[in-house]
Amino acid sequence: MRREGVAGMNTPIRLYMAMSLDGYIAGPDDRPGQELGAGGGRLFTWLDDRETDGPDGQVHREALSTGAVISGRRTFELAGRWKGDHHDGVPILVLTHHADADDVPPGHARFVTGVEECVRQARDAAGDRPVMVHGAGAAQALLRAGLLDEMDIQLVPVLLGDGRRLFEHLGAGPVELALVRRLDGRDVTHLRYRVLRAGDAVG
Question: Residues 164, 136: contact at Cβ < 8 Å?
Fold first, then answer.
């Protein structure tokens, strides 16, 4: 099933994350050498179909056509700093509380300590392409600041039971969402939500 909604802005700040039905994006004990946590690899079996013409391939290609990446610091470090290149040499803006002057990230990555400044740099770099957001910490910071436009959730039918949750520490008040697309892949449902702003119609 596919449902399309209203087109977003030219340069949406869009989260891409695979998540279990109980809200985890990694299993317990995620660390270097076990970056997805115990059992967390189950969230990415849909990538076995990433080269196909089906929904899984479509979502994977869309993610890799983004023009910049905003990453949380923890995600960036667990990923081995992507050796400085997440995909196609696009800029990687690493949102962090503190950056040491002598810690220079590799390749196309750079540290940014302010949420608004991070979004500004990402939009400037991406041009008319979407910006990919990667990691729970970055997603939560952008949601709290009201700067996340869309969420592409790859919902996997599994209960991990423990690990790292995507939606925590969001602050007071609900965050209203509108489902603008649903794609049913192999053993995954790709859900795209638009984050509603004050004054947007709900429902």
Answer: yes
pLDDT in tens, 125-170: 999 999 999 999 999 999 999 999 999 999 999 999 999 999 988 8
- C-alpha atoms less than 13 angstroms from C-alpha of 195 in its C-beta half-sphere: 20
Q: What distance in Å separates the CA atoms of residue 45 and residue 158, rounded to the nearest whole number?
A: 12
Pairing of strands 109-112, 13-20: unpaired
For the beta carbon of residue 147, count every other beta carbon within 10 angstroms. 18
Q: Reply yes or no on whether the pLDDT at 45 is more than 60.
A: yes
- Nearest-10 crossing angle of helices 136-144, 115-126: 100
Q: What is the pLDDT of residue 144?
A: 94
Answer with the residue of higher pLDDT: 8 or 66. 66
CA distances from 142 to 13, 19, 44, 76, 79 (A): 9, 18, 24, 16, 20
Q: What is the mean pLDDT of residues 45-64?
A: 97
Q: Residue 109 contacts by C-beta under 8 Å, 6 or more apart in sequence?
A: 76, 81, 82, 84, 91, 92, 93, 94
